[in-house]
């Protein structure tokens, strides 16, 4: 169950309106690695934990915090949109600054949301739950979380570099710091789980059931063998259970697949048509 | 540039048709963490590398291999669909097995693809590029890759547990082994990059520009403090640059946000209407 | 800012597992009118209110409650999935009940989420922010809310009718009651706003700028004139500013549109080709 | 069955081309509340009516009209795109007006549609049927319709404010008037249905089966109690069947949920790992 | 402008309800090549024609007819859903036929649409405008239309094979016949345009501006040279302007691409890190 | 199985950066008819061919080539983004060229991909597998391919017209030439299949099972009879099996559909409510 308090976790006041930046800032609100993604990802992982303890608590702590970040970003975006102009090409032609705004802002910020934030990214794609994952396996999921916080902090840093507004920078420096914490925390949780299980997810699948002969092999499918230089092609494997090796000229292990004809009621191309194609085949080409 | 050879990387022959399992197997072909996702993710990361060396080569090696896995899964699915029945409720009522197939198989496998694989997941959602990431920052992206191989292997293992077909199990045990390698290889590449940079992505953002006072703080936003037990709340931070701390009763750092009225040409709810709402406010509620 | 408590708003315990019903129940969690939709819709409306008062408070009260409903439904779905079987056609053929489950359940509940809830609807479409609206105009938005609670309660009632599980029915009867309240509350808020503005949204657009001659006209574009019987075709208009009228044989007010040719650099079909089409036109057809 | 006549319902001629405005105008053609949405929403509601009478007729009348609006908007957009320039940054640098167009217009209007309208919104998201609803319950659906016409008129008004082109304004003033009618008509139809049923949808679910004790309760989940001032928290409920009440400090009615472990074949995190997490738990934290 | 008449273009009465078949039939209503696709594709092509004549008239004739097909299919689906049962696993276990229906039908047909048709395909993906095209070049678009009618008829035929219901077969045999006509008509229109232009779209691009040396070359990128047997590798090209040729061992025409480093404010992986990767490179691998 | 070589199929070097054009060029990489679409379409068609011969070989040859085109376009886009500026409105106001770039470029090129290509179109919609088709019927699918190459070449030509950069033009003239070949090759393959089967897909459905009386009829559903002039309304049908005819005033063949009431457990609008609507019906309107 959730409670809301009206105060923001941290300030969200720009120095001045900037509808172009409002559009960009949408990325870390409603983009693939925006705050909606992490909030719902952590909540669904938390709800689905089959047990009850510190991992679930950590997920709910962080999920609830990300809801607060949605609120901060929505507030900042609404303020960046304060007094955003509307107009057409004639209006735009009269003032280059207004023209740049009219051409560059997200038109839905005026037409659809009435100067409010939208659950969408910086090009206007609406947020979708395809972005998130909750698999029931916490080591896998904490890796998803570490990735999300890495991508999210990278995007926040790029946005920080894109503005001269001290108020926006102030808020972003908060979010960047929180992403530092969240990378650290998932890193710590991953290390703990890896020490209890192993690094390969899932750790519960019997090793003898996989094709061990290719579990530590790098196949060179891209001409040039610079990849042979890496740690991943030399020495004991990272899971400690094998030895890396490198195959410079990988050959197929399987045959040319030939599929059976479809039943007539499927109305695929008839086998007779497919066969007849070879009737005129020049002999030297077979 | 790419070349194709007709042989499969590994065998893809089921013992018998099974249209229900064909539907499920679609998940690791065209789902969020299926082979299309990793193939295109590695290819885009590789194309976008700003430099040329072992990381790019590794990405292209692996991207090309994942294309081969698409091919293996498509072939296996087509064979699992061999002779799949069609029919209506009357047909279904005559034979419980046929009925189970008609009710449980993906109808598009008959109607749309003519007994061929579809670039979609196990519930029929078509594959979408929203699933993938290529950020230009390789540490961030290799974490995305490690996550993808973790989730992918987890799903392949669950599918392995779901079938009694020795041919399908044989192919899955190959794919599971390759996912073992791919988890190992991204793990190795991550360790190398972390040792050169630091664990926090991006490593190039000046530390003094983030709010360091909350870079290592766990806020307890979910009542109950089991999360205080974790490594993430105690000791030196994982990046070695701070000390974890725990705040049991986190208070807001910001104010209640009040947004300015919108310009009249936006036609939001009028400020006068919003204000008038307080006219009838009982005094004891303020 | 948000806080979470571990207890559920209301119980979410089924009498017994039922993976088929788990699939169906996803509709009111992650469907068009599910709890994710209302939670995020109310939150975005609340964040975007340009003013601060009872409407904003009401939106945040209800938005926070809907987050609790997401949690209840996710918990219920996870429990309905307890011990869900996996297997293929051979497994299915051995036991008709297991077969029905394998054919009818959402395969992602086993393969992707590991027996956890998914942010998706009952056919597996992932939730998307296209479902929600926050326009900045509260009368418009409260109508969206009343609609969402109407559709949501209708779906919950249909699900109630679809189960014999007393635990599921108990939880649904809670959610249905809350939807009763939420329909009542948005209804009340709408009445208040309509009494301050007018029923036509937005109320701030000058009446003389619209084509008043067709503001209260029902055009009969569907042969048969039963629609002429309605209140909407007779008497004073609902906004009190006009009189309804009915046009049985509506004629076009505009001309046949003919578009100018495209510039050559667009490479549309050439005007000469389009023109030449009339060269062979039989005279009696013009 | 449908017939088409070549004349437009109303004129759609701009004074001058304006590719930037063409992009914006797409919103009410192919956006969430654009004409495609209402046309298909009314048609599907009409096709699905289980009965035959004035409601169905009204739906088909209005659905057919909305098809005419699609045509008007498509025509207007094509004309706003007349002679739209193409070019790159070098071209743009030579003329600020051309530059503003090249930067601000929808590039697909040149590359994809060849200066024609696209079934998409103002940021280029293609129309999707997720936007619409036809539930079989007309009171619910007419509320969806009233909402759609409210949002649609609001957007049309905002577009009217954004242009100085008399031809565009002329067409918009027609569409705005029709939205006035359509809001009035659904309002009338809703009142009629509410008087026959009740305001709570669906009206056919037995009251005693819902948790009546919370059917009229406002829970204060957002700190601050301004929402207690509203009609929704005081007096007889809007459906006349209860009394509103307000709970300032709402407590959970449910327990902390603890989910059972998953079967081993699901390969979630092992219960032993989840349990072992408490082994090192400092005693004072429990 | 459009008019509707209440009668159907053709009968849509099944012999008996069949909720499983209702789900399948959705494919040709709301799938990629369903009636919504062709209706809106022809309408948008027609609205966008820059000229006025027989092609536009043909597009509008056919677009209006496809609207009638939407109506027929929606009606048929609603009737196939008559009395569709609801229930859970316990209900399903009592009657194998009911169980097959509950497991196999689209649950949204009961929960969301109240036994009405949905604008979605046979697996529940909602219709989206990504399916359609209107490019402004009629030869290109008529090829899209011929493809749509080919895929659509193929799917209708497969559905015909899947049912024993004489009423459904009767309606499908109508739709199949209309698809015969529509394939014939677009074929005729294509031939006419090809005879006026040429077969290569667009015909208006100066031949000397393309790399003529590879305009008629088949590159053998897939090992095995069966494709050399085809007409496409031998003789005069189909457009009459060149000669087909076959390259058995195609080599790259371009160089290995090396991208420049990104500016520091983008925070991609640093060039120094990418460079340093070669420091530990074993000498024999370069 | 696939192999990659590092060299590009053809050069991809622009003369100078141009972030605006980079955005546009995304269309033929990740749009509806971009290279991802054709690569995956040909690969899935090839994998699904139920037979093994020249058609499969041709599909794999061309599919592999399209992968090379993805690589060329990704490389070109990354280079067009070299040194792309970031900044806010203040930055934009200082230099009109920088302002045009900041307003017009795809913000994700900086924030998300770090100056790399994105699997998306020119307005930022991510690529989706809804764009492609593999039906198992090669004549149908080759028509899809001919359409894709027609639309793709049209878009490439429009982009060629939009740039003054000799390097970009050089690469586009390569792609345009390849599209010339691919149109020619699918045209040849289609002719071959049509000569073996017939022009109507699928050719395997017994003619007597369709309603032959409307297989060659053009119904005039759009007032005006210019469409009567066409070949499609006169003479022997294109498939040689019938005679075209034209119906100027098409009447319905079906009845007004009236659907049965829904069962009570569906909670649609009650039949009694629908019936009662006629109680107040003025007698002269029936």
3D structure, described in words:
Six copies of one chain form a homohexamer. With 286 residues, chain A is mainly alpha-helical. Chain A folds into two domains: 178 residues, Ferritin (Up-down Bundle); 81 residues, 2-Layer Sandwich (manganese catalase, domain 2, chain A). The first copy, chain A, contains ten helices and three strands, in the order βαααααααααββα. The first copy, chain A, has a two-stranded parallel sheet. The C terminus of chain A is likely disordered. Strand 1 of chain A pairs antiparallel with strand 1 of chain C, so a sheet runs across the interface. Chains A, B, C, D, E, F: GO terms for molecular function: metal ion binding. Chains A, B, C, D, E, F: This is Manganese catalase. Chains A, B, C, D, E, F: Its cofactor is Mn(2+); Ca(2+).
Order of helices and strands of chain A: EHHHHHHHHHEEH
Enter the CATH topology name of the largest domain in chain A. Answer: Ferritin
CATH architecture of the largest domain in chain A: Up-down Bundle
| Helix content range of chain A | 40-55%
Cα distance, first to last residue of chain A?
70 Å
**What is the number of strand segments of chain A?**
3
């Amino acid at each position: 169950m959730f409670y809301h308090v009206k105060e923001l976790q941290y300030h969200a006041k720009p120095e001045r309106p900037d509808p172009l930046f409002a559009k960009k800032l949408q990325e870390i609100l409603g983009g693939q690695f925006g705050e909606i993604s992490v909030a719902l990802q952590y909540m669904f992982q938390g709800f689905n934990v089959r047990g009850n303890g510190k991992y679930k608590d950590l997920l709910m702590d962080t999920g609830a915090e990300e809801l607060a970040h949605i609120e901060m970003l929505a507030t900042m975006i609404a303020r960046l949109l304060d007094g955003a102009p509307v107009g057409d090409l004639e209006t735009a032609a009269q003032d280059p600054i207004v023209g740049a705004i009219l051409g560059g802002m997200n038109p839905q910020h005026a037409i659809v949301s009435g100067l409010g934030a939208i659950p969408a990214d910086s090009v206007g794609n609406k947020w979708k739950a395809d972005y998130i994952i909750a698999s029931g396996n916490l080591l896998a999921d904490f890796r998803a979380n570490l990735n999300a916080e890495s991508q999210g902090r990278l995007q926040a840093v790029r946005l920080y570099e894109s503005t001269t507004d001290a108020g926006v920078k102030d808020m972003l420096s908060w979010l960047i710091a929180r992403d530092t914490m969240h990378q650290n925390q998932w890193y710590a949780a991953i290390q703990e789980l890896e020490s209890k299980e192993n690094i390969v997810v899932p750790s519960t699948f019997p090793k003898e059931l996989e094709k061990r002969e290719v579990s530590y092999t790098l196949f060179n499918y891209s001409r040039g063998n610079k990849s042979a230089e890496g740690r991943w092609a030399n020495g004991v494997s990272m899971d400690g259970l094998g030895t890396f090796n490198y195959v410079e000229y990988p050959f197929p292990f399987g045959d040319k697949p030939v599929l059976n004809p479809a039943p007539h009621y499927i109305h695929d191309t008839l086998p007779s048509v497919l066969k007849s194609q070879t009737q005129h085949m020049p002999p030297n080409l077979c």
